[in-house]
Specification:
The chain has a single domain, classed as 3-Layer(aba) Sandwich (Rossmann fold), CATH 3.40.50.1820. Helix content is 33%, strand content 17%. It has nine helices and eleven strands. The strands form two sheets. Strands 1-2-3-5-4-6-7-10-11 form a nine-stranded mixed sheet, with helices on both faces. It has a two-stranded antiparallel sheet with strand order 8-9. Helix 2 crosses helix 3 and helix 3 crosses helix 7. The radius of gyration is 18 Å and the shape is globular.
Length: 323
């Protein structure tokens, strides 16, 4: 991949560059120009040991400077990707976060990984191994990508609250079975309501981010997105063969995504942590499952004690894999 054109990013101490339009968009309908954005920390460790690529989730983008700083402390040159129709890559006319197949996100992750490793080499950092830290839907897409078409430099995965399943009542599970049929004829039809008490709770607890890119009113999920993620979840449930070490991290409990939930700030209110535990063992031969009591869906945005416990475990994993 050719040398990228870097510019000052919205985050102090970071730069961003266009990765250009993706090669494919499986729905084929078009909704304005598609773009992907690579972000890098300007500062690098004195003796870098790895490239770390941070991958966001749904209704999300990269702003995790605390995570990035922690990865840098453990010897990583830190990069992040805002995937198609998300964050810095969102363009006029785009339907936020819509995909028709999980391989669209896999393509964005793969292109960002290749560009990050190449850029690190061009910065004189050497040929470094690659670690990917991915959250939620990004972690689901990273899981499938790492099985199907991993980067040559890939050395390890860190999966933060991967989206392997939801806690749903029976009637909602039954309703979800008809979504693939809807997706075949109306892929962009919104089938899941938008509001995100989870995001509102983050704001209420003092987290600061761009609410145009991580919206408290949420982003309605399309039939295409639901069908694509559901198919990917079924693949994960059937078992994969990922050859690199994997750290899978979750909260200890799941609960309802309602602000009146008294544990809204101390449990995962988005994914089913039991599903993550069931399926993570089948990802490969070297999987560690970390359970962090009191953590929320994005463990990097938990309260102080569980957040510190998670970041410490991430640091130990990095040290083990590339130390």
């Amino acid at each position: 991949m050719s040398t990228l054109a870097w510019n000052d990013d919205i985050l102090d101490g970071y730069e961003s560059a266009s990765l250009g339009a993706p090669r494919s968009a499986t729905d084929g309908l078009g909704d304005g120009p598609l773009e992907r954005t690579l972000v890098r920390s300007i500062a690098v460790p004195d003796k870098p040991r790895a490239v770390a690529l941070v991958v966001h989730g749904y209704n999300d983008y990269f702003f995790g400077v605390e995570l990035a700083g922690h990865l840098a402390k453990h010897g990583c040159a830190v990069y992040a990707v805002d995937m198609r129709r998300a964050g810095r890559s969102l363009r006029e006319g785009n339907q936020p976060h819509h995909i028709g197949h999980i391989r669209e996100l896999g393509e964005d992750i793969g292109d960002a990984a290749e560009a990050a490793v190449t850029d690190a080499r061009e910065r004189g950092l050497g040929d470094l191994p690659l670690l990917v830290h991915a959250h939620s839907t990004g972690a689901l897409a990273t899981t499938v990508w790492a099985h199907d078409n991993p980067a040559d430099a890939l050395a390890g995965l860190i999966l933060d609250g991967p989206f392997y399943g939801l806690v749903l009542p029976g009637w909602q599970k039954a309703a979800m079975r008809i979504v693939p049929g809807i997706a075949r004829v109306r892929e962009r039809q919104v089938v899941v309501p938008a509001p995100s008490p989870y995001t509102t709770g983050l704001i209420n607890r003092g987290w600061d981010f761009d609410t145009a890119w991580k919206r408290p009113d949420g982003v309605g999920a399309t039939a295409g997105w639901v069908a694509a993620t559901g198919q990917a979840q079924r693949r994960v449930s059937e078992g994969l063969e990922i050859s690199v070490p994997i750290l899978v991290a979750t909260s200890d409990t799941s609960g309802p995504d309602r602000l009146e939930n008294p544990h809204h700030g101390s449990q995962d209110t988005v994914v089913d942590v039991d599903a993550v535990r069931r399926y993570s063992a089948g990802l490969g031969e070297n999987v560690q499952h970390l359970i962090v009591p009191g953590a929320i869906h994005d463990l990097t945005m938990s309260e102080n004690e569980p957040r510190a416990a998670y970041l410490d475990a991430v640091g130990r994993f990095v040290d083990t894999v590339v130390g």
